[in-house]
Design goal:
Layout (H helix, E strand, L loop, with lengths): L3 H32 L7 H5 L9 H25 L5 H24 L3 H23 L3 H6 L1 H20 L2
Helix pairs in contact: 1-3, 1-4, 4-5, 5-7
Length: about 170
């Protein structure tokens, strides 16, 4: 017969795994939903004037893959360390952030609206700050792990703004 401690430890371990899996599933869903809209080979996208400092198309996938991994890991780490009564706040901030993340691709590539996408990516930058603040209350390491994501989104916002300026 298992002791109470063994049962409790197994339950806690399962809860951690489920939390990390849920975070990974949410991030994967957002990445897939956003990627479904991307079309760098479209006539519309190719016709846009872009800044000389824009990375090549392949670089975006090379950057986003590790960023999504870090978002999933940081979110899982933070949620495990957040008191149960506060987890819904962190999860809600993450959900809003992931929706804004995926939504940018739809605004830019599908709606063909760099201006709307600029508003979307600006909201994403604000959401990143809010998410990092929310997470830092419970897990500073996870908040710091989101820094490359936040910095890349700032870069993407600057790039988007320059595309708007060049195509006005």
């Amino acid at each position: 017969m298992s002791s109470f401690r063994e049962v409790f430890a197994r339950r806690q371990s399962f809860s951690r795994v489920a939390t990390y899996a849920g975070s990974a599933a949410a991030v994967t869903a957002a990445a897939a939903l956003g990627a479904a809209a991307v079309d760098p080979d479209s006539r519309w996208y190719k016709s846009l004037r872009k800044p000389a400092w824009q990375p090549p198309s392949w670089a975006f996938g090379a950057v986003w893959t590790p960023l999504y991994l870090s978002i999933a890991g940081a979110a899982g780490h933070a949620l495990v360390r957040t008191p149960v009564g506060k987890r819904s706040q962190v999860a809600g901030s993450l959900a809003v952030n992931l929706a804004l993340n995926a939504g940018w691709n739809w605004l830019f590539f599908k709606a063909h609206s760099p201006k709307a996408a600029l508003a979307g990516t600006s909201a994403l930058v604000a959401s990143n700050a809010q998410l990092m603040h929310q997470i830092s209350k419970h897990d500073r390491a996870a908040a710091v792990a989101l820094s490359p994501y936040a910095l890349w989104c700032c870069f993407a916002t600057a790039l988007n703004a320059d595309i708007v300026r060049k195509n006005a």
